[in-house]
Every structure is written in structure tokens, then in C-alpha cells.
Amino acid sequence: MSKELSYSDVSEHSSKKDLYVVIHDKVYNATSFVDEHPGGEEVLLDVGGQDATEAFEDVGHSDEAREILDGLLVGTLKRGPGDPKPKTQSYPPSHSNSSQGDAAGFGIGLYAIILVGGALAFGAYKYLQANQEGQVKV
Ligand code: HEM
Fold first, then answer.
1. What is the DSSP letter of 33?
2. pLDDT tens for residues 41-68?
3. Burial status of residue 128 (CB atoms within 10 A of its CB: 0-12, 13-18, 19 or more)
């Protein structure tokens, strides 16, 4: 069972009655499983005829889910030059990096606010003190 399908072959199977998905460059016929999917049919239909690797891995499916996949195997994906790139490689680093980056950005922003706020408060305190001294003399 090593049928090769191109990306455009797969994209023709995107309806509920005829649904192929690509996961890790393997092509699966999910038609019989759509109604049974614990995550709902909607998410499967969303990735019908497309590369579902990222969506599938994002959820952290169990080994049991992977066994079901084995039973749905149709063949392997043969990528052409103009086809979308595999989503597998970029998936974990880009995700964790972006969230870490956001957290660091927020931390630096908070520091800046505290520093600027502190400087302003100190300036205002000095200004008021000077003003008060002036008033006492008059
Ligand atoms: C043909 C491919 C797929 C198979 C065989 C499959 C199978 C399963 C199975 C067996 C479960 C039960 C929990 C587990 O064992 O991990 C599950 C849950 C789930 N699946 Fe999939 N899945 C597929 C594709 C997808 C895709 C593409 C998405 C897109 C986001 C998705 C989203 C979910 C979600 C959100 C749950 C959790 C449901 C819950 O716990 O309430 N699945 N899937």
C-alpha cells in the first residue's frame, strides 16, 4: 500500500462524503471517521483536502488516535515544486518562541513603565517641595 498522491489529488477530496487529510506527508481517508471524531466533524472538514499536520499535533492526539490514523491510510504525499511546504518542521519552535517573545516584551515594557513612572514621581515630589518652600518664605 504505497500509492503516491499529489497535493492536487488530495485537494479534490474535501467534502464530508469524500474527505482526505494529509498528516506528516501521509494521506488518510477520513470519510468514515468524520462522524465518529471526538473533536467534532467541523475541525476535520476545515482541513479536508489539506495538510492537517499542525492542527492534528496541536491537539496532542493520543496513541489510540494515531492507531485509527493507520487504519485510514491511503498512501503517501508526493509534493510538487509549487506545493505548500510541510508544516511539520516549523511547528514546535515557532509556537514556543512567539509566546516566549511576547512574555519578554511585556516584561521589558513593564520595567520601562516603572522606571519612567518613578522618575516622574520623583520630579513631581521635588517640584512640590520647592514650591512649598517658596510659599513658606512669602
Ligand atoms: C483523521 C485525523 C484524526 C483522527 C483519527 C483523530 C482522532 C481523534 C481521537 C481518537 C480523539 C479522542 C482523544 C484522543 O484519543 O486523542 C480526538 C480528539 C480530538 N481531536 Fe482529533 N483526530 C483527527 C484529526 C483532528 C484534527 C485535524 C483536529 C483539528 C483541530 C482535531 C481535533 C480534535 C480535538 C479538539 C479533540 C479533543 C476533543 C475533546 O477532548 O473534547 N482532530 N481526535
1. G
2. 999 999 999 999 999 999 999 999 999 9
3. exposed
Count of structural domains, the chain: 2
Q: Tell whether 53 and 115 lie within a shared domain.
A: no
Domain of 114, in residue numbers: 96-138
Q: Give the distance (Å) from ligand 1 centre to CA of residue 97.
A: 25
Closest CA to 12 of 4, 21, 3: 21
Domain match, 56 and 114 both: no
Q: What pLDDT, in 10s, does the model give residues 16-30?
A: 999 999 999 999 999
Q: What is the ipTM for the molecules in this complex?
A: 0.94
CATH number of residue 69's parent domain: 3.10.120.10
Task: Measure 4 CA to ligand 1 centroid, in angstroms.
Answer: 25
